[in-house]
Amino acid sequence: MIEASGLTKAYGATLVLDEVDAGLGPGEGLALLGPNGAGKTTLLRILATALRPTAGRATVLGHDVVREREAIRSRIAVIAAASHLYQELTAEENLRFTAQMRGVPADRGEIGKALEDVGLAGARSVRVRAYSGGMQRRLALAKVLLFKPALVFLDEPYLALDREAGALLDRTILAVKARGGGAVIASHQLGRAYAVCDRFAILVEGRVAWEGRKDGMTLEGLRAAYEAAVEGNRQ
């Protein structure tokens, strides 16, 4: 589903991402881990076609992330601090408009069910500008439930979510994987990432300092690998 090689991103003389390779197969979740400024969000945004790499190449769902961005965008969903929500539209209008833009049929009943599933049925007619950060993330999650994308990109998705919403997000990610889709998660929360992901890449100063699979690895083992990767870079 994802093949990336030598991805590099620089802003002038500042190198944010340095020749990163990444891969993801059907039914898998990839966790991008690392301290602040490690390059997690930059890598996620490149793979989600929101940012162009300075060098290297990547394909997502068989399409080039630079030349075929629209083909990718029609099949993915992004949950981030800014999740492509229209602030002047209501929650219901956001979902209906997005459905029209995607060319996906979605009637009022389906939209209502998605909003109910994420706990926003009572606020369906409220403009998104009045939503809290947690409510906006719930609405972004409603998009995933409604449109069933092949790939979901999530940037610190658990921030501002209560326990119930976090559990719903976990179930949604697992459901995407179960139908043969995939997920890429940039997160500081190793426990959450471990619960829903199969591959892990620890980034430090724009490079992959460690990568591995969940097979046979405990959460404690992942924490130890994280600490070793970060501490090794400080020495």
Could you describe the 3D structure shown?
Helix 3 (91-102) crosses helix 4, helix 3 (91-102) runs parallel beside helix 5 and helix 4 crosses helix 5. The strands form two sheets. The chain has a six-stranded mixed beta sheet, sandwiched between helices. A four-stranded antiparallel beta sheet has the order 2-1-4-5. The protein is globular. It has eight helices and ten strands. The chain has 235 residues and is of the alpha/beta class.
Spatial shape: globular
- Count the beta strands: 10
| Rg measurement, Å | 18 Å
Biggest beta sheet attributes: 6 strands, mixed
SSE-based structural type = alpha/beta
Percentage of residues in strands: 25-35%
Helical percentage: 25-40%
**Strand line-up in the sheet with most strands:** 6-7-8-3-9-10
Overall mean pLDDT stands at 91
Q: Could you give the order of the helices and strands? A: EEEHEEHEHHHEHEHEEH
Distance between the termini: 36 Å
Unreliable parts: none
Q: What is the overall number of helices?
A: 8
Brief summary:
By secondary structure, the chain is an alpha/beta fold. Helix content is 38%, strand content 26%.
